[in-house]
Amino acid sequence: MNSPLRFFLLTALFVATLLGSLPAQAQQDYEHWLAGAMATRLGERGEWRVVMGAGAGLAPEYRGADDYEGKSLPLVDIEWRGAYFASTQRGLGVNIVRQRSTRAGPRITYDLGRDTSDSTALIGLADVDPTVEAGVFAEHFTRAWRIKADLRMGLNGHEGIIGSFDVALGGALADRTSLIIGGKIHAADEKYMQAYFGVPAGGTTNFTFFQPKAGLRDITGYATMTYVITDNIYVTLDMSASLMTGDAADSPISISDDQYFVGTMIAYRF
Fold it and tell me: Burial letters for 92-129: b for 16+ Cβ neighbours within 10 Å, e otherwise?
């Protein structure tokens, strides 16, 4: 095995270990929270692209909670030859389509699940086990517009299918400052909705029996501001507001349909 490939595989193992050490939270959440730090990329500079960063945010204890807690936001993103990537934001995957304005391919992500201990409101419910997710993604950039879509399936844990569609508009506000404003939706099948929003019959919870169906999970609006300190160092400020919809909103587990996030990160790219 040649040295670059060995290094990439070791990096992939490191990223997977880092993801596994994070507090339980759906992978889609971490991907969204870290997206702002990955929105600004350097041009082509050889075979390797690396972004490393650290940040913190404030988010609900779980999706549907009305209490908030701090979240650590570690970012490691390694890409080799514009094809293979290992990332705490994107997962592990391959850009099979890697044109200047379009990327698409398969990837593996890791949903960290949900622990009953995440909130006193969840006492009596079963944990949602962590799971590896197999999926596909596509991204297209045209002028100031950014369009993204993905589909992923849990291989254990929730064992469901969830997909997203994201449209954003970005541009420069000043010489070193840029702003991205966008919107995103998530939709999921019945297995996913049952795992995260269902309440079994005859349980020991304070919630009444609820059996959700497939449908739209939430609608999100977000904004990311980036300030470039040097050619390699930059900081981001990220804010988002989500409205849970359909059976996800109707679930007794969803105490609040309005979900907010604010976070900041400093990153180094080379």
Answer: bbebeeeeeeebbbebbbbbbbbbbebbebbeebeebb
Name the 3-class secondary structure at 1. coil
Q: What is the pLDDT of residue 207?
A: 84
Give the position of tokens 């996913």: 192
pLDDT average per 10 residues of sequence, the chain (270 residues): 59 59 65 88 69 94 94 91 91 92 95 88 88 96 94 94 97 93 97 95 78 97 96 95 97 96 94
Pairing mode, if any, of strands 97-98 and 131-142?
unpaired
Residue carrying structure tokens 């030859």: 81
Q: What whole-number distance in Å separates Cα of residue 166 and Cα of residue 193?
A: 20
Domains of the chain: 3-269 (2.40.160.40)
- In DSSP notation, 16-72 reads HHHHHHSPS--HHHHHHHHHGGGSS-----SSEEEEEEEEEEEEESSTT-S-EEEEE
